[in-house]
Amino acid sequence: MKSVLFVLLAASFSFAANAQYVRPLTTTAIDSLVTTLMETGKVTGLCLGIIDNNQPAYIHAYGYKDKPAHKLNDTATCFYGASLSKALFAYLVMHLVDRGQIDLDKPLYTYLPKPIPEYDNYKDLAGDDRWKLITARNCLDHTTGFPNWRRFNPRDNNKLEFFFTPGQRFAYSGEGLYLLQMVVETVTGRPLEDLAQEYIFQPFGMRRTSYIWQPAFESDYALGHLENENALPKNRRTKANAAGSMETTIADYTRFVAAVLRGDGVSAKAKNEMLSPQIAIVSRRQFPSLDTATTMANLGIHLSYGLGWGLFTSPYGRAFFKEGHDDGWEHYALCFPDQGKAVIVMTNSSNGESIFKELFHDLTGVTIPWEWEGYTPYQK
Question: Beta-lactamase-related domain: from which residue to which, for each copy (predicted)?
């Protein structure tokens, strides 16, 4: 396996000395921790990125990109990014906000040449004028009132419809991001992939990242693996979807997160807005997204959503995070902006989430909101 050490860690990687929990870790200790948890949790493949002082500090790959073929992951291996796509799209939108091309609070329909229900993909919304209320802010903080995807509509009718008035509460929705993508492409007159290449991928050196499959990825890509470690066929996506079509590498996505921590390419105002609470989260679980069961447990960590990122309060101050999930793929990025530190984990395994609680705690001393996210720790 290849590894890239961007910044020499002469002593160790550790978080703030005044934090409640400090466990300095050498790179050898990090590798031992990761490989032990992978073996115990039957995680087929994993890639790790660590950011220190707002810069990539340690990037390493573990396990298999294709276990049946005995092919190992490396730091240039393309992974399906799943919902990590959303956070990157949110950053692109904030760039457009800075340019005055998108207003977070202007109803989206006002940007379009015809009413939203007149578009083929949104005919289901006819007869419910709440589509006139949806804004870019609602899409980015998951308050549109839509299901995650129409195929997950709890009424089993495969329709896109409102389950509450936009802005009323949090309910994770890829449909909202996809609608905003249509608006962004209309306003700019350019496809998402072109915009992302110009404003994100190229400036941040993300040469092996795209919202659509690229021929260059054929040289080094991972397969997703199920719980039994059987490999899944590779889905080469040819249509850009802001909510979840991105292909990337651990090296590229770590560069992106470092850029977010620094605020590269956006104003300080836009960055602060993106990472400020927009809606408090009181749902008992993130999924099913429309479940109305609530809990007060989230209040203790001030769990909320910003624009494209989840937020909570950690022993190190503010924290923001983003997950990614699909069959065979499970990812998590955890960031501490006041410390200039972050940990990004990408797995090509349906068992990946089972080690996230322990892995992130042992790497950072912070307990992620794993119960709300529905992560079931592996059984020792």
Answer: 30-353
Cα Rg, the chain, nearest whole Å: 20
Give the CA distances from residue 292 to residues 31, 284, 286, 295, 306, in Å, rounded to whole numbers and listed in that order. 41, 8, 10, 10, 20
Coil/strand/helix, residue 297:
helix
End-to-end Cα spacing for the chain: 27
Give me the tens of pLDDT residue by residue for the chain, a chain 380 residues long.
333 332 223 234 555 444 433 356 899 999 999 999 999 999 999 999 999 999 999 999 999 999 999 999 999 999 999 999 999 999 999 999 999 999 999 999 999 999 999 999 999 999 999 999 999 999 999 999 999 999 999 999 999 999 999 999 999 999 999 999 999 999 999 999 999 999 999 999 999 999 999 999 999 999 999 999 999 999 999 999 999 999 999 999 999 999 999 999 999 999 999 999 999 999 999 999 999 999 999 999 999 999 999 999 999 999 999 999 999 999 999 999 999 999 999 999 999 999 999 999 999 999 999 999 999 999 76
Q: Which amino acid, one-letter code, is at 28?
A: T
Q: For residue 332, what is the DSSP state?
A: E
The answer to whether the CB of 253 falls within 8 A of the CB of 322 is: no
- Grouping H, G, I as helix, E, B as strand and the rest as coil, residue 195 is helix
User: What are the structural domains of the chain?
Assistant: 3-373 (3.40.710.10)
132 burial type by CB count under 10 A (0-12 exposed, 13-18 middle, 19+ buried): middle
Task: Return the DSSP state at 199.
Answer: I
Q: What's the one-letter identity of residue 189?
A: G
pTM confidence score:
0.94
**Six token digits for residue 78:** 């393309």
> What whole-number distance in Å separates Cα of residue 291 and Cα of residue 77?
37
CB 31 within 8 A of CB 13: no
